[in-house]
Design a protein that fits this description.
Distance between the termini: 33 Å
Helix content: over 70%
Number of strands: 0
Amino acid sequence: MKTPAFSSLLALHMAVFLFGAAGVLGKMLAVGALLLVFGRTLFASLSLLPVLAWQGQLNFREVPKSVILCGVLLAVHWLSFFAALNYASVAFGLMGFASFPLFVALLEPWFFKEKRRASDAWAAVAVVIGMIVMVSDASWKDGAVIGLALGIFSGLGFAFLVMANRWQGGHIPAFKLAFLQNAVATLALLPFVLAADVMTGISMQTWGGLVLLGVVFTALSHGLFMFSLRRLSTSFASLMTSLEPVYGMLLAYFFLHEMPGMREMAGAAIVLAATAHASYLHGKH
């Protein structure tokens, strides 16, 4: 018999799977990072409006100004991630982003005046070693180093987003917060989209892909992730997000025919082990 915990675990795996698949879909759409992120945030926020109406949460009078910061950080995080995929394979973008738990572990004590742990420093060293191994066969010409660097910057942006969400105290319901952040990101990107005129000549098929990216791979994945937290601990959920690069690399192999080399996989294994171990240790405290 399926238990509620099983349903939560299944929802968590589905959410992480969708997180990992988002990069693959973005690369398959073959449009610039600016349009990808604008379309993703636009359709995610639009699809969340009926959810907020159903929950009676369409009142935005007491929204803290920190939401603006979170929305901008969300835009920066996704822009750098999808830009990474323009230079290198999905694996490099995902593995760079996978460093975000280490940034949280290293920066959170400084922002919130908490005790530092020696294990975080060792985990950071392990992540650096893993990334050096990943790009040891690469050159500047093939874009792998730039792709990995942009992925790391994406992870840094997401780490700041996580800490900003903690700083504002978690007083806003999850779906309302998701809508506000995506809406702010959309508005922040709109002037750049209009100035760059990136929507000219976009096919209906591409717009359909952007709708899919926003509704399924953003709004739905967020909903599944929040549903899983009803029965599962945050520390366990954070640990399971280490599977995101694994799912992403598998999907990239099947749909984009991107096959990581042995050194790339060895470096990725080191990064995953270090971030998973750091997440586990923080969950115990």
